[in-house]
Amino acid sequence: MIRGYSRSDNPREAIVLYMSMIAKGIAPPNNFTFPFLLNSCARLSSLEPGHEVHSHIIKHGFESDLFVRNALIHLYSVFGNLNLARTLFDESLVRDLVSYNTMIKGYAEVNQPESALCLFGEMQNSDEVTLVAVLSACARLGAFDLGKRLYHQYIENGVFNQNTILTAAVMDMYAKCGSIDSALEIFRRVGKNMKTGFVFNSMIAGLAQHGLGETAITVFRELISTGLKPDEVTFVGVLCACGHSGLIEEGKKLFESMFNAYGIKPQMEHYGCMVDLLGRYGCLEEAYDLVQKMPFEANSVIWRALLSACRTHGNVKIGEIAGQKLLEMEAQHGARYVLLSNILADANQWEEARQVRKVMEDHGIRKPPGWSYIELGGAIHRFVASDKSHPQGKEIELMLKDMAMRLKSAGYVPNTAQVMFDIDEEEKESVVSYHSEKLALAFGLMYCSPTDTIRIVKNLRICADCHKAFKLVSEIYGREITVRDTMRFHHFRNGSCSCMDFW
């Protein structure tokens, strides 16, 4: 019964039944009881019942049992307590494949992909669960070389090549590492019987990130033609693809078809996609009107999309409304203050912009630092804005000077409009030249093979100055550069970007 409840829609009943069993002294728990209980706890909204079960495990002497310990690691991983999960993992005298898989999956899901890959390096064998988790970590980090090696070694011609979840994970890895053509190639090779909705959704989401809206719509139509029914995730992907490609009319038709044709009631994510699409296209009044007509209160994601669009199109009126809403919801999020102050500064409302910055300073709120990753020879190199502590720091400094000299010769003038500090123009130019993506680019120009694409992953949206500089660098140095920021992919080649400056 406890096992049955642990897999039901009401997992809390497993805990109630266990407590009743203990209170009535019916039978003592064993090493089968606790894994089912812990799996039930992992499906609840609070960790508190899990702590209580953990205390019972210690009381009854089952904490050293491998099955129980693996379930504990899973529980704490699900709730993001990776420190405690890792402590339990490290204390195991015996670790099996489940132990490693649980820990790696936990690291991948809480955005600690480096730790996931490090742990994977210790393993002697792996299975489909391992590979899905490690591929997810590769996707998050942009670890293209490792992800590609895993695909060729274990999946392409191996025993795992008939697993649809693994196939979708491979496609996701290629897409998020910037190789959308490889993702499409794998998708095209997948047999019809393996093209599940999950596989279609993965492909559509990848195309959306790369701004390939028309291709995403083609894949969406293929899904329909195969007799599959699109779900909520499908529409998030295809609407996002329309947003990154400026396909406003197609996006509107798809949004209307959700309920009319497929009986799917639009959720917050779908409204967010539409606000983003309308905002990017400059239809800010229409976007704001949609926010007001939503059947629920807008969340921070929607207000942020609207605020970003206001910055792009210079709409201070709606921008201030969206900015204030965001600050009410996320009062400690520094990036929101910066974005609002930049909108005011762009409109020459300098005093208002300074007031926003002053509120930030008075409350000790800081903008999250920009960082960028780049992979080289299977190793991940991380760069933080204005940080000169990298082991190759001196060489990077020289390359930055070489880049600056060549860019200047090509007519490049640094865009310092977003630098709000009270410093002179020369110092502002120095600030933008040490953005994390420029540090990563300098490293890539020095150490990546001339025939390889330089692949960079950034934790923030790429700024206008770096975007302009990267286009020129791709032409000056004859290199292909891919940048994945929080919004989308940018493929720089021959002096232009795949986003067509629409991002």
From TrEMBL:
Q: Which Pfam families match?
A: DYW_deaminase (PF14432), E_motif (PF20431), Eplus_motif (PF20430), PPR (PF01535), PPR_2 (PF13041)
Biological process GO terms, please? mRNA modification; RNA modification
- Which PROSITE patterns does the UniProt entry name for this protein? PPR
Q: Which residues form the DYW domain?
A: 411-503
- Segments annotated as PPR repeats: 1-28, 96-130, 196-230, 231-266
Keywords associated with the record: Repeat
Which first-to-last residue range defines the signal peptide?
Answer: none
Extract one GO molecular function annotation from the record: RNA binding
Q: Does the keyword Repeat apply?
A: yes
Is Ion transport given among the entry's keywords?
Answer: no
What are the record's GO terms for cellular component?
cytoplasm
As for family, the record states: Belongs to the PPR family. PCMP-H subfamily.
The protein, known as? DYW domain-containing protein
Q: Which organism is it from?
A: Vitis vinifera
